[in-house]
Specification:
alpha/beta, three-stranded mixed beta sheet, globular, binds glutamine, single chain, Rossmann fold, about 30% helix
Length: about 280
């Protein structure tokens, strides 16, 4: 049984749990999944993978700090290298760097060597939807795989810069410090696997101009064709600017659960190989 958690401190966590359930029902050769809302380090400990939902990232990180789960979250993502997916505010928290807003900085979890620009498209009233063909979904076996995905952007961040992937980056003016790095207590076999994950580079998974065909009139939006990066992956960490949890389309959840299964299998094989040596 694979346990997938959704960080439930603030934001659209119950929507994610619902879509995970729908996705699991869609996954044919399903291992059994257990989904749980995560509010404590003890609950996080039980998880093989984690989703950090959309919401308000400053609030979420304040609540996380107060719940003493910020450190365990960094360990989960950056030391154990467990599959973690952040949507919108979740993407911000998983970035190593985020620009400041009027309200000031925030503690990040980190894991993605990118800098995000919060509220890139402006205020709430500038929220928009875009029907995009997301290339990574083409690998799922869903029958509706060719339909565009309705991406909902609400005060959304974008990835404005890919950072050199090691922690030696200097801090520039107007930038938050990179999220604290937890030093891995390496040496054990599982940590070797985590180290491999650590060496992976940032992959751009989608930009706003990601489209297999020209936009229809009813799909047009002010930002159509922009090159803004709206989804990235680096090893175990995946983040997107938009809110799949605010649609009833479970295709990204299906794809991501597949990635979680692969990661769990990799870990099991690795542990087995080292045990039988
Ligand atoms: N702009 C929000 C933030 O900075 C994120 C918005 C969202 O998750 N819809 O946290």
């Amino acid at each position: 049984c694979i346990t997938v958690g959704v960080l439930a401190l603030q934001g659209a966590f119950s929507e994610h749990v619902q879509l995970l359930r729908a996705a699991a029902a869609n996954t044919s050769s399903a291992p059994t999944f257990r989904f749980m809302e995560v509010r404590t380090p003890e609950q996080l400990q039980q998880c093989d993978g984690l989703i950090i939902p959309g919401g308000e990232s400053t609030t979420m990180s304040l609540v996380a700090a107060r719940s003493n789960i910020l450190g365990p979250l960094r360990e989960f993502v950056k030391v154990k290298r467990r599959p973690t997916w952040g949507t919108c505010a979740g993407l911000i928290l998983l970035a190593e760097s985020a620009n400041r807003t009027k309200k000031g900085g925030q503690d990040l979890i980190g894991g993605l060597d990118v800098r995000v620009n919060r509220n890139h498209f402006g205020r709430q009233t500038e929220s928009f939807q875009a029907n995009l063909h997301l290339p990574f979904l083409e690998s799922t076996k869903e029958t509706s795989k060719n339909d565009p995905y309705r991406c909902v952007f609400i005060r959304a961040p974008v990835v404005e810069k890919i950072l050199p992937s090691n922690k030696a980056l200097g801090i520039q003016e107007g930038e938050n410090e990179r999220a604290d790095t937890v030093v891995a207590p390496s040496k054990t076999p599982v940590d070797e696997l985590a180290k491999q994950e650590l060496e992976r580079e940032v992959e751009i998974m989608a930009t706003l101009s990601t489209n297999a065909e020209p936009l229809q009139e009813n799909q047009k939006h002010a930002h159509a064709g922009a090159e803004d990066i709206i989804a990235v992956r680096q090893g175990n960490v995946f983040g997107c600017s938009f809110h799949p949890e605010l649609t009833d389309d479970a295709r990204i959840h299906v794809w991501w659960l597949g990635e979680v299964v692969k990661a769990v299998e990799r870990r099991q094989q690795f542990e087995l190989a080292h045990r039988t040596k």
